[in-house]
């Protein structure tokens, strides 16, 4: 059993069983009523949307069990993209996010830490706690803005990675739809810059 | 560049800050703050009016500078550079301070140093606390950002999608007729709050948004006491900030956290951040309460770093930058 401290949750990996338990321990800094509500909402949302996303053609772990504050899911053998992302992987990620948005889902925390490059050469999307069903251009724009911001802060070749992502995203989400989302991304960036 | 060679440990820089409500000057050298003097602008009613604030700065700047120099008991020719906040900030305020700084630099025949206000908060915070390579939570009126250094620049990992947390608190407190600045008053009221009222909690990765929180909190003013609403407002806003900070600590892989900006004076926010730092074995750094907010010393100190690295600002390129972002500045001294 391996224990991983995630960005929000605690993850117990059982590689032999091929299972992962993602547990949201209470956050001591939050008042209890707020924390309880957040933990419950996010756990429920995550389990449901992970399954819906897979139905929309996005590779995600299979959900095995669900409790109030934890999800048991399939273990994905591989590594997160964080330290090995390249243009080819980013294009694939774009294709997957295109499918996700087509499936009416906004991820809410798109980063290379939430993408696993699996041993069978596929990219899995994980960490759906901040996801929701939303078909507004704004929600999709924020989704992609969050990813681009992360690329910019973390990688020197962020321009190339961004362009590869866009290429993949357009492939599955459609040129025109993708362009209107990308236009919104620029608008969101401008909003941040000028106050 | 001649100045660079002649610099010693005793090189003294004058710094002037005036991006918003606080007009403040200071003299520093590499080891210490020598003197400071400030004249904050307090709006008679409502929030900060940029033009009124600029007016106030214009009438006080002479006094602020001369008192700073007088307190230091130094000769004018000991000052080796004039540093000022070139942005981000309110246009009229920035222009007032820039005009005075240009004049002073010409008069003293020393280099002008246009300092990025946000970078100054960070460098000053590192200087005072000894933090080396921290994740930075910068929370002030107009700005709320999660920042860390990587490869010659301060990178933005997350930020507000609409208004800064300080402005959100001010909007909330103004609705209830509290005088500017609202932060300390809301902090006091919140201590007496008993019941938590659920309010919007909006986090998107490492970004966040406060405008919905302000709208919801003010719309519940009939059914709830001001104490309960202040408490709930703070709990929501600061939990959001703490959550994104924790996420960024994980993604950016830092084991130090530095809190800067005026809202950093809030003890409840500090307490929340301390909690995640304890859990993650991260060292928590925060400057003394009077130095988290805007001040001249942070500008002077950062100006000193710039001068040492030859980053002087020629007068013809000293126009203010109201939307200047920290990731636009090269940081050669890190
Ligand atoms: N199904 C899974 N298979 C393999 N590894 C996983 C799985 N789920 C999570 N992990 C690992 O745990 C880490 C944190 O999980 P994540 O769902 O992103 O939680 P958090 O919200 O805390 O970031 C991931 O970056 C990944 O390394
Ligand atoms: Mg994650």
Automatic annotation (TrEMBL), chain A:
It comes from the Archaea. GO terms for biological process: tRNA processing. One of its GO terms (molecular function) is ATP binding. One of its GO terms (cellular component) is cytosol. InterPro entries: Bud32, Kinase-like_dom_sf, RIO_dom. Residues 32-140 form the RIO-type domain. It catalyses: L-threonyl-[protein] + ATP = O-phospho-L-threonyl-[protein] + ADP + H(+); L-seryl-[protein] + ATP = O-phospho-L-seryl-[protein] + ADP + H(+). Its EC number is 2.7.11.1. This is non-specific serine/threonine protein kinase.
